[in-house]
């Protein structure tokens, strides 16, 4: 638990409720409404601690705060406060506490969590550098004032490197000229590189390197040819920052066939579908929260920690994302590192979760974040992809879909592909509601054999031309996939 919980977060969650009440109305801490206030604070503490664990806020290093961690903290505070307000509203419709209390609690909780992290960061800065000072060998110009350049400059600060040899920054945006990036002035566009080099040389400074702070050259990076030519004529080395840092960047490949999918769906339908997904997922998360707590406790007792595992699936436009499920199998190795046979990894409680589909509940979070929809083509493992998968990946994947209510795991991957492509071409809000209702029936009574008319209509609706297979078909399953066992989608 030390990896997921930090003392500053536990204290912040504990104090957020009482401080919010004291700021709103100190008289609430005494009198006839004290019991309601105590109940509100306890629910807030439980919800806040649950979000601290769920968002893994304790994994960050205490005295280094990134923008991503700030977003995680703010999101966790919002979800915790919303869950608290929804639970109390469900119990007594917030009749005994002020309606503005959740908003005040949100501000207090976020301020305490972020403030604690800021104090830890300041403490490290006051302690002084942990390593000796270094000096850059080359006199460098940075091209592009973006997040990558800012991160590079911060990294130099972290190593206590003298940044005086980073002379200036060039950028194509005229609005940035005269401004600074972590103390380094943005002096002009990349096209003025030769003039900048000449001007610095007059003052006795010889520039010997230019770092490009972006990915590989693409269609809108024609200015790089000009920069490269000016560097060559001036005898200056040019490199990409990502090469210096040691990682490779590749450009995403857009497929023309992928763009065909959304054309079948009107803008109004896509907006209505997203609003429906978001509202239903939030309601289900609140209504099913007691069941989720019981499932978590059952997994902790039967299987131990962690209670959730992830798999890498292909989502919208074949972009990989992490789909979450409750664990249903024991680990493939025991505490001594010995391999455990497949039949010994099965769990009675895990079998119940799979049969009732309760192991899919964490995917409500995927729906809330927009990575998935309630209804759509089911995101399959790379090894389970049908031979033609571009059209089905042109829309967001779903928790359930047309293929799942017409055979599910009893039909082949290619048959699922046919049914999913039929859904993409014929999707509507009424069809989504129909799929959801039949999914409830499938959960209660199990999978039926493929409905012949549904598959026949899907085959008749197929285009006559062949579609190129996805390059992700060759991808191998991850270690987490192997740990959890074969897919049942």
What does this structure look like?
The chain has 489 residues and is α/β, with parallel strands linked by helices. It has three domains: 7-126, no CATH class; 134-245, Rossmann fold (3-Layer(aba) Sandwich); 256-484, no CATH class. It has 17 helices and twelve strands. It has helices at 7-24, 34-54, 67-92, 101-126, 147-158, 193-202, 223-234, 241-245, 267-287, 289-302, 342-345, 348-356, 363-368, 413-426, 429-445, 452-460, 479-484; strands spanning 134-135, 140-143, 161-162, 166-170, 180-181, 184-188, 209-212, 237-240, 308-314, 320-326, 373-375, 398-400. The strands form four sheets. The chain has a six-stranded mixed β-sheet with strand order 5-6-4-2-7-8. A two-stranded parallel sheet has the order 1-3. Strands 9-10 form a two-stranded antiparallel ribbon. Strand 9 (308-314) and strand 10 (320-326) form a beta hairpin. Helix 3 packs antiparallel against helix 4 and helix 14 (413-426) packs across helix 16. The protein is globular. It starts with 6 loop residues before the first helix and ends in a 5-residue tail after the last helix. Residues 253-261 and 463-488 have low confidence and may be disordered.
């Amino acid at each position: 638990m030390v990896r997921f919980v930090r003392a500053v977060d536990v204290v912040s969650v504990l104090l957020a409720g009482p401080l919010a009440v004291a700021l709103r109305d100190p008289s609430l801490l005494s009198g006839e409404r004290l019991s309601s206030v105590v109940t509100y604070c306890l629910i807030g503490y439980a919800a806040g601690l649950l979000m601290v664990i769920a968002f893994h806020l304790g994994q960050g290093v205490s005295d280094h705060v990134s923008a991503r961690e700030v977003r995680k903290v703010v999101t966790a505070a919002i979800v915790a406060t919303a869950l608290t307000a929804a639970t109390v509203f469900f119990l007594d419709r917030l009749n005994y506490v002020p309606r503005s209390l959740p908003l005040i609690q949100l501000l207090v909780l976020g301020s305490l969590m972020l403030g604690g992290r800021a104090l830890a960061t300041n403490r490290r800065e006051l302690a002084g550098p942990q390593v000796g000072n270094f000096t850059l060998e080359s006199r460098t110009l940075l091209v592009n004032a973006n997040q990558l350049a800012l991160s590079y400059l911060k990294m130099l600060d972290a190593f206590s490197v003298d940044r005086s040899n980073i002379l200036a920054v060039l950028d194509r945006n005229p609005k940035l000229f005269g401004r600074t990036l972590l103390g380094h002035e943005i002096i002009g566009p990349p096209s003025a590189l030769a003039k900048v080099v000449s001007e610095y040389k007059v003052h006795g400074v010889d520039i010997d390197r230019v770092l490009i702070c972006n990915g590989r050259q693409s269609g809108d990076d024609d200015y790089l040819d000009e920069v490269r030519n000016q560097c060559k004529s001036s005898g200056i080395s040019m490199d990409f920052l990502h090469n210096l840092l040691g990682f490779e960047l590749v450009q995403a490949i857009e497929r023309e066939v992928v763009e065909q999918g959304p054309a079948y769906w009107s803008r109004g339908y896509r907006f209505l579908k997203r609003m429906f997904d978001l509202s239903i997922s939030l309601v289900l998360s609140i209504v099913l929260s007691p069941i989720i707590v019981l499932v978590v406790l059952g997994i902790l007792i039967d299987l131990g920690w962690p209670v959730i595992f992830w798999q890498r699936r292909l989502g919208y436009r074949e972009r990989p994302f992490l789909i979450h499920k409750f664990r249903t199998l024991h680990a493939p190795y025991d505490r001594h590192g010995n391999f455990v046979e497949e039949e010994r990894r099965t769990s009675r409680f895990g079998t119940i979760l799979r049969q009732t589909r309760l192991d899919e509940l964490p995917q409500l979070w995927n729906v809330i974040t927009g990575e998935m929809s309630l209804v759509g083509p089911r995101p399959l493992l790379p090894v389970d992809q049908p031979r033609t998968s571009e059209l089905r990946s042109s829309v967001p994947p779903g928790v359930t879909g047309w293929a799942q209510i017409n055979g599910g795991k009893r039909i082949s991957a290619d048959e699922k592909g046919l049914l999913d492509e039929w859904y993409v071409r014929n999707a509507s809000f009424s069809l989504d509601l129909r799929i959801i209702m039949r999914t409830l029936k499938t959960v209660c009574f199990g999978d039926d054999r493929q409905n012949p008319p549904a598959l026949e209509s899907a085959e008749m609706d197929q285009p006559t031309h062949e579609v190129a297979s996805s390059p992700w078909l060759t991808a191998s399953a991850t270690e987490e996939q192997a740990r959890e066992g074969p897919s049942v989608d």
